[in-house]
Amino acid sequence: MIRKPFLSMGMLVAALALSIAAYAVRVGDTAPDFTGTDSNGKAHKLSEYRGKYVVLEWTNNGCPYTLKHYESGNMQALQKQWTAKGVVWLTVLSSAPGEQGYMTAVQENAYLRKENAAPTAALLDPTGVIGHDYAAKTTPHMFVIDPTGRLIYAGAIDDHATTDVGDVKVSKNYVSAALTEAMAGQPVATSSTRPYGCSVKYQ
């Protein structure tokens, strides 16, 4: 008699986990639409970018895995390379107030200038709404969306899950590979990988 409630609770937790997994965004799905406000106060709605490739980059400037890609200049180079080809690059900050990586609009704009970063926009997501829509787990965590609004890549930025700046030069960059293949009309060879980095600091 005592064990029954515990079994029921266990089954409830398992069912909830399966339900969440069922609704998690997957490669091949239509990317969840969202509206986010950037560090300049401008609203961005994902569906307004239909017809373009979109990259979502989850970031945290206190995370050593993120710093690896900014201190090496790798992330800025990717942003400039792909936005020059018409790709919309949205950096997303889902750290909650008081947590590592949280930035006000003024702080984020100062950071972007300091790092010479060049995303299309930096979206401030302190409540984590956009992050949870995509089940963003780490910083960085990367997503690539094609012009039809379909998710074609989700996961790590590259194949070296370290904080070593020197590894950037010898890494396979999954984001660049996905964009290059998709723009050439080819299927994305590696469409999903396990993301690495610091956990997103949700509220």
TrEMBL record:
Extent of the signal sequence: 1-24
One annotated GO molecular function: antioxidant activity
Keyword annotations from UniProtKB, A to Z: Signal
Residues of the Thioredoxin domain: 25-180
Cross-referenced Pfam families: AhpC-TSA
Organism: Alloacidobacterium dinghuense
Name of the protein in its database record: Thioredoxin family protein
Source superkingdom: Bacteria
